[in-house]
Amino acid sequence: MFAEHAAGAIAVERELHESFFAELGVSEADVAATPMAPTNLAYCSYLLASAQGGSFAEALGAVLPCYWIYREVGVELARRGSPHPLYARWIDTYGGEEYGAVVQAVLDLADRLGPALSNADRRAAAARFAVTARYEWMFFEMGLRREEWPV
Question: Is 0.85 surpassed by the pTM of this model?
Answer without folding.
Answer: yes
